[in-house]
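hiii so um. not sure if this is the right channel but i have a protein structure encoded as tokens and i wanna go backwards to a sequence. like what aa goes where. can anyone help
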């Protein structure tokens, strides 16, 4: 197995790529920066999609679809937005053998095209709220790409809602943040920190950006999902207005939010080991594999058995059920957990119910293992040298006070390559001194290097 997958301690980046390609989750496309998602990887995305889609619909959201191509002029209507996305945009100037009258942006995100449509659809307070989600692909011209984590084209869902008041938009943004948090923990078995982004880290054009932040095994943070309160910025840019009950006209308050196939990369990095990927049962394409063991041709069995076990570990099957001559004599199977290779005898009578219980135990144990890892790799620091030393030596999240000044935040990033991943929404208010400049601080934040 060591010849197939590079050990994590030897080269974590190479290990990650090996796990994905050797498990046949994805492969490199002939188009630079793009990937082909193979059936195993796409099965994981489908499982994520089913669960999230159900959760969105339970809260009143509906699915729609909007074009991939966006008139270039749309992107320029919201100044912050165009500044944030311009370096990542692919532009179409010719179509059908002719130069286009107006260039088209290959959508990096869909706010502009969607709010152009909302301006047509929304006329009255009776039309609100508008709660729409779409499952789509987008294109961002990334310079440095990595399978699932950052590719030129990727799959995602993006929700876009319009509301009558700021309070309703804020409630929506926080509702989705909680859906993402619960999905990460309940389905992915990955604990996360939630909070608000600083102004320098928020989404281009947003009033406020909230995120869930996970920790990977190499000590780097991964932004696993974002939810944005867009305020009235896009509504004003595209004149999305509604008539109130009093007869006056107001701009709507809006939100956008999304997660992407980056979550598949998070699964690999959070749960994988030197034998391959390890899927949590609730998202595993295959939850159980049954392995018969016999001795009619001992050498052949031993070789084929080793090959089977290697293939199963690579594909992350959570539970293996072995049955051999001794198991038959005892009227049982031997269950082997992918998580820790622990073997458990399981009677053949009531096998289905016991297997279901074992899968739930594995799911819970993976989450608890993740929580223990997150706790062990979240540290409090009080001075700048301690922060820099910790980032270099151990990685992980570091709780530290920050004065709130943008120039101080920038200097920390320049010095350490770490960013403020989020400001916790609650429980972080206490007097202290900024970890860098020593100025008075009323809050602590999470620092980490990230993907």
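sure thing!! here u go:
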């Amino acid at each position: 197995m060591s010849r197939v997958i590079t050990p994590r301690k030897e080269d974590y980046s190479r290990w990650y790529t090996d796990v994905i390609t050797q498990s046949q989750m994805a492969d490199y496309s002939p188009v630079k920066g793009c990937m082909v998602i193979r059936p195993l990887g796409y099965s994981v995305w489908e499982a994520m999609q089913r669960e999230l889609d159900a959760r969105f619909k339970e809260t009143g959201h509906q699915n729609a679809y909007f074009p991939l191509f966006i008139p270039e002029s749309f992107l320029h209507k919201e100044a912050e937005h165009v500044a944030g996305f311009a370096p990542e945009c692919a532009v179409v100037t010719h179509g059908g053998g002719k130069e286009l009258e107006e260039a088209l942006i290959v959508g990096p995100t869909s706010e502009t095209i969607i709010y152009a449509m909302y301006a047509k659809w929304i006329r009255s307070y009776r039309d609100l709220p508008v709660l729409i989600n779409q499952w789509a692909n987008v294109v961002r011209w990334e310079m440095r790409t990595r399978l699932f984590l950052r590719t030129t084209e990727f799959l995602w869902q993006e929700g876009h809602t319009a509301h009558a008041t700021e309070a309703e938009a804020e409630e929506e943004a926080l509702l989705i943040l909680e859906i993402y948090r619960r999905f990460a923990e309940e389905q992915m078995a990955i604990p996360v920190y939630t909070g608000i982004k600083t102004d320098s880290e928020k989404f281009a054009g947003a009033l406020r950006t909230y995120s869930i932040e996970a920790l990977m095994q190499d000590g780097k943070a991964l932004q696993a999902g974002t939810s944005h309160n867009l305020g009235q910025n896009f509504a004003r840019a595209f004149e999305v207005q509604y008539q109130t009950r009093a007869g006056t006209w107001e701009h709507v308050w809006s939100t956008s939010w999304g997660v992407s196939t980056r979550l598949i990369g998070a699964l690999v990095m959070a749960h994988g080991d030197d034998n391959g990927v390890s899927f949590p049962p609730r998202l595993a394409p295959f939850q159980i594999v049954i392995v018969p063991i016999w001795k009619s041709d001992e050498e052949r069995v031993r070789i084929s058995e080793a090959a089977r076990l290697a293939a199963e570990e690579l594909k992350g099957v959570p539970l293996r059920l072995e049955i051999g001559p001794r198991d038959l004599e005892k009227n049982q199977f031997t269950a082997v957990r992918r998580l820790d290779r622990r073997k458990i005898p399981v009677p053949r009578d009531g096998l289905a119910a016991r297997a279901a219980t074992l899968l739930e135990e594995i799911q819970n144990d993976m989450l608890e293992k993740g929580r223990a890892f997150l706790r062990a790799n979240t540290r409090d620091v009080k001075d700048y040298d301690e922060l820099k030393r910790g980032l270099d030596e151990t990685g992980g999240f570091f709780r530290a006070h920050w004065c709130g000044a943008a120039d101080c935040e920038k200097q920390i990033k320049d010095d350490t390559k770490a960013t403020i991943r989020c400001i916790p929404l609650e429980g972080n208010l206490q007097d202290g001194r900024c970890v860098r400049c020593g100025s008075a601080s009323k809050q602590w934040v999470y620092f980490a290097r990230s993907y």
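oh and Residues 330 and 347 are 8 Å apart (CA to CA).
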